[in-house]
Write a structure and sequence with these properties.
2 strands
């Protein structure tokens, strides 16, 4: 397919953004191949427990926000100039990345933020925190398996303990009881596991309506999909004939709608929890794209070292 350069007219720009949106939405159709083979569009459907959809907050300002809000003892500066902290900001696709990044920002500005503002007015903050805890608890399997893959037996044990405590005493994960029992360990994912074994990060990449990636982390993102049994035992976006599921494989539309609905709900909830922080970042940062890229790459490098 030939990708034409941007024209000067608003119509051409609108057509391009519309095409990107259509392609992204097509990825939520749940059309995974049968007998263990997943469609190439499947990775857009899930991040451990639910699909990535609609300008994931982390792709816009959350990384920069977290950087501004970091404790003074943090060893890295997300706004440092390239190379100052030993982070290789390999971004050969920057011209395209910046355009997609701006598209994501506009989706956040005109769609996600207004919805999150209304949601924040209706839903009390403690309820929002409980919902965030619930979704985090669902993402236990990839974190557990990646601790095992990296030989972090203690971390794997802590993840099991957190899941059991929060799923029972924490009422399905809504209350993070485990944090009061000092059951804490760094989050692990497949991208970190690849980095742990020496796989280079590759180019930085920004996709429509999704979080930032490097090529390695995008591969890891797909790996996390396969590591979560929810995607083939409960809501089968990965279809394996020999493995039954709560929702039959034939009901792809039902699975996809639940996955999409759950992820939209989670994103709105998370955006609502960070309305003021994100606003402060946008006002304080001159080059938001560079700040988010720098913060993301440093965050990932630090996570691999932990």
């Amino acid at each position: 397919m030939t990708i034409k350069t941007y024209g000067a007219t608003t119509d051409l720009r609108a057509m391009r953004y519309g095409l990107l949106l259509v392609v992204a939405l097509m990825s939520f159709s749940g059309c995974a191949g049968r007998t263990g083979s997943a469609s190439l569009l499947t990775p857009a459907i899930e991040h451990s427990a639910a699909p990535i959809l609609v300008a994931d907050a982390s792709s816009i300002t959350s990384l920069a926000a977290a950087a501004l809000d970091k404790a003074p003892e943090e060893p890295f500066d997300p706004f440092a100039k390239p190379g100052e902290e030993g982070i290789d900001e390999y971004d050969p696709w920057e011209p395209l990345n910046t355009k997609v990044f701006e598209f994501n920002r506009q989706v956040d500005r005109w769609v996600l933020k207004p919805v999150a503002t209304g949601y924040n007015f209706i839903v009390p903050n403690p309820v929002q925190i409980g919902i965030s805890n619930f979704f985090y608890n669902l993402r236990f399997p990839p974190r557990f398996f990646n601790n095992i893959f990296q030989g972090k037996v203690k971390g794997a044990g802590i993840e099991v303990g957190r899941f059991l405590v929060n799923s029972t005493a924490g009422i399905g994960g809504f209350i993070d009881v485990a944090q009061h029992l000092d059951l804490k360990t760094p989050d692990e994912d497949t991208g970190q596991t690849l980095g742990f074994y020496g796989v280079k990060s590759g180019p930085y990449l920004v996709l429509p309506l999704m979080q930032p990636f490097t090529v390695r982390d995008l591969i890891g993102f797909v790996g996390d999909i396969f590591l979560n049994p929810i995607n083939w035992l409960v809501l089968p976006i990965i279809e394996i004939d020999a493995i039954p599921s709560v929702i039959p494989h034939e009901n792809r539309l039902t699975s996809s709608l639940i996955q999409i609905g759950g992820r939209i709900f989670e994103i709105v909830n998370d955006r609502s929890l960070n309305l003021e922080k994100f606003q402060g970042v946008e006002e304080a940062t001159l080059d938001l794209y560079a700040a988010v890229r720098n913060a993301y790459l440093q965050k990932r490098a630090k996570a691999i070292q932990e």
